[in-house]
């Protein structure tokens, strides 16, 4: 049966042990690349794009755990991202709370909201669950716009202070870059540890067949709720970090469109692929930057590229490329 303490003990606190040598090597390579990459860049704009990629990777990792591994559709995940951003922004700006406690409070608040939303919603399946999460996202987006006495409405919330910890202020893009990618790599390690534990096996069993998983003693609802809350916490963390990096947030950043972009990141990178989350986040973040040269035809080209990816690499970029390389080597 499901053990609430076991979820965190087995999945997270077991020394962050990666289950395979390949994962460890991949994390070390990624860390080395991200550590040295700023040395090759001579522009703060490139750093800011890499920061956004890191934030989107955190979001995609959480959504991949929920959709790719547990098989639970979420079309309103941007709402948790926005709740984390607005909670941190409002607490630090309007009430003078230090950014770190504000970030923690945002995590707790979003976690409670995720439980309230998840308990009834996760009893639904398939498209019905998707519609329920979509409704939640729409409601939160409307609240961001209409509660102007707190959120400053459609015009956006300004004046969010820079993040600081123990007297150290992250007041440059380079400092924030290293903070974001440190958090991203830690989240990546936690996620890899979870999916390679008995928890990950239970999630995959639920994805394959809830009836079969239940017959084996898996507490289906408890596992689904736990991964739903964890995914929301990832989004809340990304939202808080985003708010303190940009210094300005508006409802348009957390609407239905961005929820769909997040789902697309997971699908393009590869469902049930932790490493695919990085590729999906990178592609969907960089693609609009490259397509700016097409001006009025940007959306058309954007859609065409995504369509081609889904037709020729339906497994996602990560699995699709790896499988084709293996196929060629096997000839």
Brief rundown of the structure:
By secondary structure, the chain is mainly alpha-helical. Helix content is 74%, strand content 1%. Residues 1-18 have low confidence and may be disordered.
Q: How does this model look, in words?
A:
It is globular and about 60 Å long. Helix 4 runs antiparallel to helix 5. It has a two-stranded antiparallel ribbon with strand order 1-2. The N and C termini lie far apart (46 Å). Helices cover 74% and strands 1% of the residues. It has a single domain, classed as ABC transporter involved in vitamin B12 uptake, BtuC, CATH 1.10.3470. With 331 residues, it is mostly helical. 43% of the residues are buried. It contains 15 helices and two strands.
Topology:
Blueprint: H1 4-11, H2 21-40, H3 44-69, H4 78-94, H5 99-121, H6 126-146, H7 148-151, E1 164-165, E2 168-169, H8 173-195, H9 198-208, H10 210-215, H11 220-246, H12 256-269, H13 274-290, H14 298-312, H15 317-330
Antiparallel strand pairs: 1-2
**CATH architecture identity:** Orthogonal Bundle
The H-and-E topology, N to C, reads as HHHHHHHEEHHHHHHHH
What's the total number of strands?
Answer: 2
Sheet bearing the most strands, described?
2 strands, antiparallel
Shape call: globular
- Bin the strand percentage: under 5%
What are the key terms here?
two-stranded antiparallel sheet, ABC transporter involved in vitamin B12 uptake, BtuC, disordered N terminus, single chain, 331 residues, mainly alpha
